[in-house]
Amino acid sequence: MSAALVSLAILGALAVGLLLYWRIAVVGHHGRLDQLDVRVHVNGIRGKSTVTRLVAGVLREGGLVTVAKTTGSAARIIERDGEELPIYRRGAATINEQLDVVAAHVTRDVEALVIECMAVRPLYQQYSQDYMVRSDITVITNVREDHQEEMGETLEEIADSLSMTIPRDGVLITAEDREHLRDRLRRNAEARGSRLVYADPAIVDDEDMRGFDYLQFKENVAIGLTIARLVGIRRQEALRGMWKSVPDVGVVRLRTYDVNGKRILWVPMFAANDRESVVLTFERLQPMFPAGSTVIGILNNRRDRGRRAELFAHMVPNDLAPYLDHVVTFGAYEEQVTRIMTNEGYPCERIHQLGETVSPSLERILAEIAALVPGRDGVLLGMVNIHTDQAELLLEHFDHLRGTGQRSELEESRDPARMPAGVIRLRRQAARRGGHADRA
User: Fold this and answer.
1) Which of 213, 237, 238, 360 would be a feasible disulfide site paired with 58, CB 3.0-4.6 Å?
2) Distance (Å, rounded) from C-alpha 204 to C-alpha 213?
3) Cβ-Cβ contacts under 8 Å for 255 (sequence gap 6 or more)
4) CA-CA distance, 309 to 325, in Å (whole number)?
5) CATH of residue 246
6) What three-state secondary structure class fits 236?
7) How many H-runs (helices) and E-runs (strands) does the chain carry?
8) Could you report the per-residue pLDDT of 51-81, keeping only the tens digit for each?
9) What positions does the domain Mur ligase central occupy (predicted)?
10) What tens digit of pLDDT does each residue of 18-64 get?
11) For the chain, how many structural domains are there in total?
12) Are residues 237 and 138 in the same domain?
């Protein structure tokens, strides 16, 4: 046999081997999914990580052994007992990570999976739903302007892109409050044989929100209650599960710190980076600000997020000027965003550049922020993105001021008080099996 034929035979054998491996992997993956009683795929523009956590909390407290996975500010596996495991990546995140999560964590006793959609491009979203998650319930939290390069320029186009994760012959749940967009989602769901259920925030009252120690939205809680109703979990159990769930690292927790003799309320709302979410958050936060406080907004611009930088530069004079006394720029694009803000009417003397143009120390950042507060109280809000040198200095500083008595989110997830009913049931079953084995 010639060398060419030998090489061809080897290549053919490799191809057959790869196809066989792929087939075995696909069958195994689908088998693990099919064993589940509930599969929830969480998509949308804002609130995906938070909703993933809340829904998982609902299912766990309702007695279902549940595994969840978030992709947000810090990717996490949330195990059946509510304990969180960080996801470590060697390179850039890819949607194939979802396959690894199912293979490693969906064992035979797991009954429910709640998984946040990783995909942005419509084709990848469809692949994620049809092959990777195959959910019977999909959540589209809302439709907002973001990722327009991949998902479309208009809200209607973005709604259609998100609709690629709607299940076939299943249920779509959304808290989108604009009727024309909800109707579009409904038509897209019906085209796949699914029905749309509106998670109306009116079903959530103020008392329901008192169990959260961070800024939470009724729309997110309404999604959790809607899923509870669909799967037969009582309302109070659902609320208890959501209260127990550990919040994402990107949530807004309001804490006051001393900054060079000023009382500064620190509001790290970096995770909200579209216009509607930010304006809504400001509206809900404003009553919580100390009376007479000076409000300072940080525009934290990453060099690889130029479009967001431009978006917020337009938002400051057009949407946020009534709330902000001063604006501080961090990171990149300082000259450009300053020019946009001043051209559209925001006073240049209220804009302060503390990003890449000066690369300030932490001490300078704190001193200049304190100098902007003429009275005793100030409010400092971080916006747009999380990761720049200046934002990380500030975040580390405030984390240090929290002190050693404060627990991280990972430590909170190990608190026995957060243990869900499903885990208690599993432990009882294990104890009974152990007792039988001893008697045998």
Assistant:
1) 238
2) 16
3) 265, 266, 398, 402
4) 19
5) 3.40.1190.10
6) helix
7) 17, 14
8) 999 999 999 999 999 999 998 657 899 998 8
9) 44-191
10) 666 556 666 667 888 999 999 999 999 988 999 999 999 999 999 99
11) 2
12) yes
